[in-house]
Amino acid sequence: MITIQSPVENQVFSAGQTITIRATVTDNESLHMIHVIAIDNTGGHWVHSEDHVDGKSFEIVKAFVTNAGKNYTISIDATDHDENTATKQINVSSN
Question: What domains can you pick out in the chain, each with its CATH number?
Answer without folding.
Answer: 2-94 (2.60.40.2550)
